[in-house]
């Protein structure tokens, strides 16, 4: 399994941030209610948060909260509260008499399960006033089911051999809860965030590929924890929807093989979605259940690594204190520069508290502000003021100059961003679901966090290394290649000796930046001093070197800020330097690399393009900017000649451009007709690849294939 598959980390950043915003995982201090986190819903407080609360950032989020509440109520057997919530927030759902009859049957069983005389009387009342009348109109078989459920009056719930053992089973609760979730998601258009659906799909394709090809998965421990085996019960169409126009067989097969459905299951799903393929696809993806706390753990780890959120998570006891510090600091933001200077002046006077935390003596309005408090600032972001000498822990760089380097890098950043604070979001633990408690992590993460709690210096040590890498990445993101090389050499003089390609790319950026500014002599000096010797030691770099030098001929055809893939280079640099400092990439990176690789390989086997990759942004995740910037120069010049523009679309590195998004440019149409492929898939229920291989043996004749299959049966 190729774990070095290139991924567009900037596209993944956007998906992850959208997911966290949609799930309300970032603090939003614009609302006063954010000072106290929303309490977990319970059966005693059944209404979802009001639209004015901070936790209701969107109607979709509100609807998902409602669905989660109803799921928990049904799983606990509280049908009455479920019906109350539905009547209040989604009364139209109860117009489906099939669903209402199902809920009334379960209510009858739950009343009998309680076993008290009062509840038994309530069960009889339910029979007379609700269940029997509903059975007359729900659907043709409903009355027979009504008579069958009456057997629960004489057969005990512990009798596993009774005719109503299935109705008595507590598993029935979860089936109904899943069915209700499926129906409500479609009815309220409350599908999960796009990243959540993309992850489900990629993992399911990954599992299918590994199973069919007989190869081990390098991320099986993560995928087993993330994607649960159980799916929600599918929602079936009402009888009135059965008369829809015939559904395209191509859509049926695409849906069936995308989410592992039978053909009939795909037909039902499309009919329920009124023939809308994308809608049906979303419904089926959301039936797959993710372990929410594991997903949140992976997302937060990734966000910390990428510098999106602050690594410090406030405990419930200190959260109010941190927010109070934020409100205090927010008043001081109008004087960023003066406050920045005052903090710098006081950094040398910082003192350590007994528990190892650093206190900064920034006396503003007579208030002493700790660095831990400062880290928790801003509305949906965080303000950090790195200070020299805040800790005396051991050196953590490979060159023995880490502590000094940290300060130099921070000062370099600040000299280029005077008065501009470094902004990060603040993580908010999910706390609306008691089944996935806030702060629940994997055993491995718990052990790691536990050790860090007992070793504050180790935690600071790790955080400082991460800050060092992020600071260098920030420089690279701004195209400050010369400064990056200087800082990396100070940090680790041996780094570029072991990573010459990264040095070549950085010097390309420096060269092209000088050309862009009109400093041609300076650009030539960089080429002579660095690019030339590097290319002399690696013949593969000669061609990129020649193409890079072409920029001298047409300097106005390259827009430095727009055309150069500096963000991709910055990400590569972050990973490489992080590894040198012992910082492991987040697990989500491993998941995305492995699943995107198997997605590409899977559709090579299927000899077709994935119809859903654009909707799920998979094609964007594979659009990795070329690692060799010379490709950008060549592409700019080609576009300038053929289209009169230097606008470009950069292909994936290390192979043909079509390998990343359309892996089957040698399509199945060269083997046989698409109609024949669909016909064999429909009648023989075969995967696309198997159908194509069979057709190839029979000269593309679908009838011959079908006759051969049935003759063997």
TrEMBL record:
Composition-biased stretches (Polar residues): 397-412
Domain CTLH: 63-119, 472-522
Spans annotated as Disordered: 30-59, 385-463, 644-668
Biased composition (Basic and acidic residues): 385-396, 446-463
Matches recorded under SMART domains: CTLH
One Pfam family, short name: CTLH
Domain of life: Eukaryota
A biological process from GO: proteasome-mediated ubiquitin-dependent protein catabolic process
PANTHER family from the UniProt entry: RAN BINDING PROTEIN 9-RELATED
Name of this protein: CTLH domain-containing protein
Source organism of this protein record: Spinacia oleracea (Spinach)
Organism lineage string: Eukaryota, Viridiplantae, Streptophyta, Embryophyta, Tracheophyta
Originating gene: LOC110799049
């Amino acid at each position: 399994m190729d774990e070095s598959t290139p991924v567009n980390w900037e596209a993944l950043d956007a998906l992850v941030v959208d997911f966290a915003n949609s799930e309300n995982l970032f603090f939003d201090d614009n609302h006063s209610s954010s000072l106290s986190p929303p309490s977990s819903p319970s059966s005693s407080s059944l209404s979802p948060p009001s639209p004015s609360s901070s936790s209701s950032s969107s109607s979709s989020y509100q609807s998902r909260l409602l669905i989660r509440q109803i799921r928990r109520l049904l799983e606990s057997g509280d049908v009455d509260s479920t019906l109350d919530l539905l009547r209040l927030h989604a009364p139209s759902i109860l117009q489906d008499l099939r669903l209402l009859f199902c809920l009334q049957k379960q209510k009858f069983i739950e009343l009998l399960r309680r076993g008290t005389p009062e509840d038994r009387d309530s069960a009889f009342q339910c029979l007379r006033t609700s269940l029997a009348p509903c059975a007359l109109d729900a659907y043709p078989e409903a009355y027979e089911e009504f008579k069958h459920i009456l057997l629960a009056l004489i057969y005990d719930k512990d009798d596993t051999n009774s005719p109503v053992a299935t109705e008595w089973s507590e598993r029935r609760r979860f089936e109904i809860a899943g069915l209700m979730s499926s129906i409500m998601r479609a009815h309220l258009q409350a599908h999960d965030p796009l990243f959540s659906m993309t992850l489900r799909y990629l993992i399911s394709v990954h599992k299918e590929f590994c199973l069919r090809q007989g190869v081990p998965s390098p991320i099986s421990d993560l995928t087993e924890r993330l994607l649960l085996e159980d799916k929600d019960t599918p929602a079936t169409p009402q009888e009135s929807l059965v008369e829809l126009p015939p559904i395209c067989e191509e859509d049926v097969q695409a849906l069936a093989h995308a989410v592992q459905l039978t053909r009939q299951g795909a037909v039902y799903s499309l009919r329920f979605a009124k023939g809308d393929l994308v809608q049906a696809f979303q419904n089926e993806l959301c039936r797959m259940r993710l372990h929410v706390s594991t997903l949140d753990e992976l997302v937060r780890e990734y966000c910390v690594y990428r510098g999106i959120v602050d690594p410090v998570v406030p405990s419930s006891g200190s959260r109010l204190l941190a927010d109070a510090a934020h409100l205090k600091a927010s008043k001081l933001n109008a004087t960023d520069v003066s406050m920045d200077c005052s903090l710098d002046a006081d950094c040398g006077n910082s003192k350590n508290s007994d528990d190892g935390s650093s206190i900064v003596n920034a006396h503003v309005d007579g208030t002493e502000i700790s660095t831990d408090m400062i880290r928790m600032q801003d509305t949906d972001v965080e303000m950090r003021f790195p200070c020299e000498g805040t800790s005396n822990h051991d050196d953590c760089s490979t060159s023995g100059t880490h502590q000094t380097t940290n300060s130099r890098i921070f000062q370099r950043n600040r000299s280029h961003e005077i008065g501009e604070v470094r902004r990060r979001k603040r993580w908010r633990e999910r706390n609306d679901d008691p089944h996935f408690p806030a702060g629940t992590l994997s055993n491995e993460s718990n052990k790691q966090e536990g050790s860090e709690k007992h070793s504050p210096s180790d935690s600071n040590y790790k955080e400082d290394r991460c800050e060092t890498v992020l600071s260098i990445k920030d420089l690279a993101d701004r195209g400050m290649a010369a400064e990056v090389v200087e800082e990396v050499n100070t940090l680790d003089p041996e780094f570029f000796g072991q990573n010459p390609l990264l040095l070549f790319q950085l010097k390309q950026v420096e060269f092209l930046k000088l050309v862009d500014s009109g400093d041609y002599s300076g650009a030539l000096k960089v080429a002579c001093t660095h690019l030339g010797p590097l290319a002399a030691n690696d013949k593969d770099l000669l061609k990129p070197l020649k193409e890079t030098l072409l920029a001298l001929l047409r300097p106005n055809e390259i827009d430095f800020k727009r055309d150069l893939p500096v963000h991709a280079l910055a990400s590569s640099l972050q990973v490489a330097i992080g590894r040198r400092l012992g910082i492991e990439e987040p697990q989500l990176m491993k998941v995305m690399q492995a699943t995107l690789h198997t997605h590409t390989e899977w559709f090579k086997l299927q000899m077709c393009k994935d119809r859903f990759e654009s909707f799920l942004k998979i094609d964007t995740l594979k659009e990795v900017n070329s690692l060799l910037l010379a490709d950008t120069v060549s592409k700019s010049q080609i576009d300038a000649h053929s289209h009169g523009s230097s606008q470009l679309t950069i292909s994936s590195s290390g192979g043909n451009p079509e390998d990343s998004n359309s892996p089957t440019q040698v399509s199945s149409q060269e083997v046989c007709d698409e109609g024949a492929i669909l016909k064999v898939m429909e009648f023989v229920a075969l995967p696309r690849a198997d159908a194509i291989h069979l057709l190839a043996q029979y000269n593309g004749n679908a009838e011959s294939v079908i006759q051969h299959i049935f003759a063997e049966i």
